[in-house]
Structure formats: structure tokens, C-alpha cells
Amino acid sequence: MKKFGYKQSNSDHTLFIKKRGDKITCLIIYVDDMILTGDDTEEMAELGKNLFSEFEMKDLGPLKYFLGIEVLRLRKGIFINQKKYVLDLLAEVGMVDCKPADAPMVQNHGLQMKEEARKTDRGRYQRLLGKLIYLSHTRPDIAYAVGIVSQFMHAPQ
Q1: 16-28 as b/e: b if 16+ CB within 10 A
Q2: Whole-angstrom distance, CA of residue 46 vs CA of residue 102
Q3: Which strands make up the sheet holding 77-81, listed edge to edge?
Q4: Collapsing DSSP states into helix, strand and coil, what is residue 42?
Q5: Residue 84 near residue 70 (C-beta atoms within 8 A)
Q6: DSSP 106
Q7: Are residues 113 and 157 in contact, defined by beta-carbon separation less than 8 angstroms?
Q8: Which of 16, 24, 31, 137 sits most deeply, having the most CB atoms within 10 A of its CB?
């Protein structure tokens, strides 16, 4: 990407950015998927041509789904959600029929570690918590609850 004039982001090594005047082009790569976006249509076309000449790849058109996040383009703007991700997560934990709650956790919850409490599968707890952390990117309303239960990752009960 550097030979095409792109700079690698310091905060995310999979993000490459090129600015030309007041226009910008961004490329983010995850394993064998990539997103090309920006407001510099000429640069995006040129980069696409360069990438196709260097790599065997397909253009899947406008972004619809990436890493468990659905992207919807409407007149009012671009919206993202993780509906399928949530449904898969609920199925994994056997809670497809659960009832939604407006407040996922009460304040002053009183959760704490207890010596006599029965331990649970730490690996499963950590995997599920990782999925909830990822879900909180599009669901900031669960961030508080996820933060609280994250405190018990080392020895879940």
C-alpha cells in the first residue's frame, strides 16, 4: 500500500489512508476481506485497478455485511446493526425466546465475588464476554453491563 502512496494508521495497522487535497480514501483489510471507501472516486478507481493487477480478487459491490455488522444505506444515511450476530449469540446460549429489557442491568447491582460460590467454565464465559464486547460497538446501551461482568473474567461464578 505504501507504494501506492497510502499511510498505515498508527491506531489500526489494517487501515491505510491516502489524502489528496480535501479528499480521502481509506482501505481496511481483515484477513481476506477489505473495504475501500472515501470521497475520492478517482483514487478509489485507481486503487481498485492497482489491487486487481497485484492480487486475485473480486469486487462484491457496495458494502452490505462485514465482520458480523450489517450495513444499510438509506436516504437518511448509513446505518449499521448486528441483528444476525445477536440472533446467533442468543441461539448459542439458548436464549432465543428471551424477553428484551429496556435496562439490561440495574444500577447498584451488588455483584461481587464470593468464596463459596460455584465456579463456571472460564473459557466459555470469556468467549461470550468477548462477543458481548464486540456487540457493544453497535449497542452502546449494553456497554455498562458488559463492563461490569468483565470484572469477573478471571474467576467467573
Answers
A1: bebeeeeeebbbb
A2: 47
A3: 65-66, 69-74, 77-81
A4: helix
A5: yes
A6: -
A7: yes
A8: 16
Here the cell at position 122 is 472460564
Strand (E) or helix (H) holding 133: helix 122-135
Q: How far apart are CA 121 and CA 108, in angstroms?
A: 26
Q: Which residue has the cell 487501515?
A: 15
Task: Give percent of the chain with pLDDT exceeding 90.
Answer: 59
pLDDT in tens, 131-152: 999 999 899 988 988 998 999 8
What's the rounded Cα separation, in Å, for the pair 52 and 85? 31
C-alpha cell at 48: 481498485
Are 69 and 85 in contact by the 8 Å Cβ rule? The answer is yes
